[in-house]
Amino acid sequence: MDMIQIVGLGLIAAILSLLMREQKPIFAFLITAFAGITIFLFLIGKIGTVLDTLEELAAASGVQNVYLKTILKIIGIAYIAEFGAQIVRDAGQEAIASKIELAGKVLIIVLAVPIIGIIIETVVKLLPA
């Protein structure tokens, strides 16, 4: 049922945006951005359920909470960067969208470095000397 509502909102926004694009391009962009933000906010509740499940799985498996939080931050940065880049791309600003994606990638690698270091240390310990 949720997916039908999302698709319905997307189709209505797309039709309104196409109708407005010729006469008022700024309104077309605002309709598109509003639809994207509404869909994103609708999905936040669903994401909360997934996060709770992942935390339970991590606690049951003995994974340290700091690693799970770092991975969740990385996933969040990826989604937000993609979402922001798509909205800016809808406004016709491809160069700025590319910069948003680049910033997201840089922030992801900054957060991933400690985890990569721990994985390398673990692999080195497993190798015979």
Automatic annotation (TrEMBL):
Spans traversing the lipid bilayer: 6-21, 26-47, 67-85, 106-127
InterPro entries associated with the record: Spore_III_AC/AD (IPR025664), Spore_III_AD (IPR014211)
Keywords tagged on the record: Membrane, Transmembrane, Transmembrane helix
Protein name listed in UniProt: Stage III sporulation protein AD
This protein's encoding gene: spoIIIAD
The organism's place on the tree of life at top rank: Bacteria
